Amino acid sequence: MTFNNVSEQFQKILKYIKSGVESEATLDCGGDRFGSKGYYIQPTVFSNVKDDMPIAQDEIFGLTRQNKALQLVFTENIDTANKLTRVLRGGTVWVNCFGVLDAEIPFGGYKTSGYGMEKGIYSLDNYLQVKALVTSLKNPAWL
């Protein structure tokens, strides 16, 4: 899906947030506009989300690039960061930083946000097909 302008995407995301609240999911943090300029929304986290809610069924990204799902976590509490990063289903999660990339750090999306991983050892999976082959060189005892 493409959007004619950033404002349209911004409004769409705000509607999803409102829908989550109205569906009685718990808004744990965020959910509002960030700053007074531009089209930024605070990082937003819901809990108590049911499978039939639109916020559970649709991939909701405030990014303009297709197929790039990025998750950001900002916190001073490392326990909070560890708990949140374990439950996030995203290919890349940055804690208290953004855009840190290296040739050895895998990068990619989950589900329809990307196919496979780029960079690091995991990028080889895109070119390999694993097969297990076991061959007995003696007559098997059960024959």
TrEMBL record:
<feature type="domain" description="Aldehyde dehydrogenase">
    <location>
        <begin position="8"/>
        <end position="62"/>
    </location>
</feature>
<dbReference type="InterPro" id="IPR016163">
    <property type="entry name" value="Ald_DH_C"/>
</dbReference>
<protein>
    <submittedName>
        <fullName>Aldehyde dehydrogenase, conserved site-containing protein</fullName>
    </submittedName>
</protein>
<dbReference type="InterPro" id="IPR015590">
    <property type="entry name" value="Aldehyde_DH_dom"/>
</dbReference>
<dbReference type="InterPro" id="IPR016161">
    <property type="entry name" value="Ald_DH/histidinol_DH"/>
</dbReference>
<dbReference type="GO" id="GO:0016620">
    <property type="term" value="F:oxidoreductase activity, acting on the aldehyde or oxo group of donors, NAD or NADP as acceptor"/>
</dbReference>
<dbReference type="InterPro" id="IPR016162">
    <property type="entry name" value="Ald_DH_N"/>
</dbReference>
<dbReference type="Pfam" id="PF00171">
    <property type="entry name" value="Aldedh"/>
</dbReference>
<feature type="domain" description="Aldehyde dehydrogenase">
    <location>
        <begin position="72"/>
        <end position="132"/>
    </location>
</feature>
